[in-house]
Amino acid sequence: MKTVLIGVGQAGGKLASALQSFDRQMGFGAVLDAVAVNTAKADLQSLPVETVLIGQDRVNGHGVGGDNELGAAVMESDQTEVMSALDGRVTAEAESIFVVAGLGGGSGSGGAPVLAKALTRVYDVPVYVLGILPGEDEGALYQVNAGRSLKTVAREADAVLLVDNDAFRSAGESMSEGYDAINDAIARRVGLLLAAGEATEGVGESVVDTSEVINTLRSGGIAALGYASAEASPNAEDNINAVMSTTRRAVLTGTSLPDASDADSALVVIAGEPDTIPRKGVERARRWVEDETGSMQVRGGDFPLESGRLASLVLLGGVERSERVESFMERAREAVDKAETEPREDPKEMWHSDDLDDLL
Questions:
Q1: Binding-site sequence positions for GTP
Q2: Residue positions in the annotated binding site?
Q3: Mean pLDDT, to the nearest integer, of 204-225?
Q4: Which parts of the sequence are annotated with region: Disordered (predicted)?
Q5: Residue-level pLDDT at 263
Q6: CATH number of the domain that residue 270 is part of
Q7: Cβ neighbours, 10 Å, residue 76
Q8: Is 25 buried (19+), middle (13-18) or exposed (0-12) by CB count in 10 A?
Q9: Looking at residue 167, what is its pLDDT?
């Protein structure tokens, strides 16, 4: 899937840069271009991508201080400048646009929903948000910001690919080390998903293409991405168990959003040397994901790639019923003393409730 990345806020700019760097390092060519947008001048200076500083008349390049209402207002007033920076970057070759943002800060959580809304009005390609949830230890302000931002952006974007910081942080890591590790892990996962069907080594039996990614995300709402890999045997038949085990690990322990195994749709991608990918293993993995997710819309295919390993990528669409999402939204509501007391019959209704103020 050829895409243009727009990183909003500090975390968004860093992750968008990491994604572009991974894509170039691997030679995939799936990331056509990347732009970073922020209200803090210092956060843009070290990024190896085109940058746009917004809100200079209101915050003078010093950021919005975690105020995502101000972040939304600044993006609203300066969105013309951001859209102008995309001229000539979102070409006819682009098959999607990804807005990348940390949902807990001010510029990213406030600006991402506004920008996603503007982009969907202008461009005739899917607009997705790659959103990062704050960890439980990141403070009440970040929880409230992320709850409000997620509620809003889930409505404005075609889908939100959600990353939970707590799923990637390792014990004993400093905060900066933890964020760097998260960026590297997500860049690899999302980078491989974007590259599937774009730049392949050899010819697989059933190569995944962009339409399958788009169709998996077509239901909208929240999506998650799982990943796991293992050493490959030269003989495809010997890799059936490896394909099954990596697929299980990708869904059960390797997702960007833990415990998100109930889904409306899914895509199983097995990456590796074409001669080492067992057709029987791919089909078994697809059927297992059907059973695990309860979805009949499970696609599967190959990603031919020069590597001594086999990797399973599992994209899950429509995971709003995930316990992780519901517990996070509850945490956000509690942070503003508006705890939910009754269970919801339809998890999608959380995006239409009044428990958290809408940003737009």
A1: 10-14, 106-108, 138, 165, 183
A2: 10-14, 106-108, 138, 165, 183
A3: 89
A4: 332-360
A5: 94
A6: 3.30.1330.20
A7: 15
A8: exposed
A9: 84
